[in-house]
Amino acid sequence: MAWTRRWLLGVCITCALATSAPPQTRFLSYTEAQEILAAFGRTEEPSAWDQWVRTEDREMRRRVDRGFEDSISNLILYGISFTRLPRLESADAAVTATGELVEAARARVRAFAAALAHPQANERLRFAREYLSRQGVQPRGVEAFLAANLTRYVMEQRAYQEKLRLASETGDGSQMLFARATLFESRGLSVDTSLLPNYALEETLRVMVRKHALDPAHIRNIAVIGPGLDFSDKRDGYDFYPVQTIQPFAVLEAVVRLGVGDAGGLRLITLDLNPAVNAHVRQTVERARAGTRYVLHLPHDPAADWTPQIVAYWKHFGELIGSPIDSVRAPEGVTVRAISVQPKYLSRIQARDLDVVGQILEGEQFDLVVATNILVYYDQFRQALAMACIAQMMSSGGVFLSNTVLPARRPDTLEYLGRRSVSYSVSGSYGDDVVAYRRR
Predict the structure, then answer these.
(1) Chain segment 337-373, per-residue pLDDT in tens
(2) According to the model, what pLDDT value does residue 217 have?
(3) Is 90 exceeded by the pLDDT of residue 95?
(4) How far, in Å, are 16, 116, 314, 335 from residue 12 at the CA level?
């Protein structure tokens, strides 16, 4: 399952160019899963487990398509590359109380459908058009499909907000944390990403260094689970710059800035089950080897109410891993920085296909593992399985960071270090809770 034939070809070319066999991916064994199975009262026998974990992997991969459909809806709501119509204020504003699209949303659906007929150089439109073609959507049915998909997406968003509201009304903080931690357990697996969670990761690592919980130059091997693509995120939906991935570079820069890893010896592997993400990372590395630079675009809307700390992070992001260059033209009211990443950092990155709920990259020992906006897509049992897989891939003393508050039932090999709350807005309306673990 891939987004485009072109991307699949890129994957094949990358594999052919590899100079050595990559580490092998395997499923979590029954023995390795037993601790979690027992903690959740599961009674599978070895043969049943082997069948379950493989079936689960297939189901997880099917959720990639639904996640892309969510990204298409975000693009319709907020994109500016295909229309001059005003953006919607929010997803909720696109649908009436009775479940009908408002006229402003219908107009943007029509504009998007018309733009799909002639996508030209707009890669987001090309991806969407090719996806609809693979799904068997005929040209005459595109507008109806997009309208139904947008309605479905908005109604799901309302259901998530209702879940949070009900948890909040209990007055039980643990109920609210649980609701947030498993909010998207049945949602499609989204590729969306943004800069902000990386600030929370860096701040958490900074505190660990200050408290001597992380030794200087300790980190050599890094894993980024679900690095994501900045296709059309759920908050801003910007689409005036090329599709990009941010987190691998943000993590590398944080490690170098804090002195917990030597820039010359770092190695980073992205782990994702989405073929589009994997292909993008692989092609980025191959193009860098051929001399093509990779440019990150970092937008900032002053109306986003960022804290001074977040603004400072945005202003200085990329100083250690690249150099500033002229950016593409931004929409009115939005400021954007562009960073050309140094080839030596691109050369540190590899991509591997892996479903973290049940799969392990054999033989790897990571000193730092990060997973932001990933584990929220699973229930607590699957989160615990993911932690078991992650623990199997960590070195002794290795650190695992996530912005999902994870279940207390976890592998004994993972020591819980604590939770740090980081606000991104002056009003405190949004932010992240980063949890930290160490491999015993």
Answers:
(1) 999 999 999 999 999 999 999 999 999 999 999 999 9
(2) 86
(3) yes
(4) 6, 28, 36, 38
**Regarding beta strands 431-439 and 414-423, do their DSSP bridges make them parallel or antiparallel, or are they unpaired?**
antiparallel
| Mean pLDDT, rounded, for 396-400 | 96
Give me the percent of the chain exceeding a pLDDT of 90: 85
Q: Output the six-digit token pair for 356.
A: 């973290």
Residue 235: per-residue pLDDT: 65
Q: How far apart are CA 397 and CA 208, in angstroms?
A: 13
pLDDT of residue 233: 62
**Alpha carbon distance 12, 106 (integer Å):** 40
The encoded tokens of residue 272 equal: 């994702």
Euclidean distance between CA atoms 273 and 359, whole angstroms: 10
Q: What is the 3-state secondary structure (H, E, C) of 88-150?
A: CCCCHHHECCCCCECHHHHHHHHHHHHHHCCCCCCHHHHHHHHHHHHCCCCHHHHHHHHHHHH
| Strands 359-361 and 25-27, sheet pairing | antiparallel
Taking each helix axis from N to C end, the angle separating 46-78 and 142-169, rounded to the nearest 10 degrees, works out to 110
Closest C-alpha to 14, from 350, 283, 323:
283
> CA–CA distance from 415 to each of 251, 259, 396, 412, 440 (Å)?
22, 23, 11, 7, 6
pTM: 0.91
Whole-number pLDDT of residue 238: 87
Q: Are 374 and 356 in contact (CB under 8 A)?
A: yes
Q: How many other CB atoms are found less than 10 A from the CB of residue 317?
A: 23
CA distance 225 to 280: 15
User: What is d(CA 403, CA 287) in angstroms, rounded to the nearest whole number?
Assistant: 31
What angle is formed at CA 338 by the lines to CA 332 and CA 342, rounded to 5 degrees? 175
- Residue reference for tokens 């660990």: 208
pLDDT tens digits along 20-51: 566 799 999 999 999 999 999 999 999 999 99
Pairwise CA distance, residues 268 & 252, whole Å: 8
Task: Let me know the angle formed at the C-alpha of 151 by 148 and 155, rounded to the nearest 5 degrees.
Answer: 140
Q: To which residue do tokens 């609701």 refer?
A: 179
pLDDT for residue 14:
41
Taking each helix axis from N to C terminus, what angle separates 30-39 and 380-392, rounded to the nearest 10 degrees?
Answer: 140
Contact 181, 374 (CB under 8 A): no
Determine the residue type at 228: G
Whole-angstrom distance, CA of residue 343 vs CA of residue 321: 9
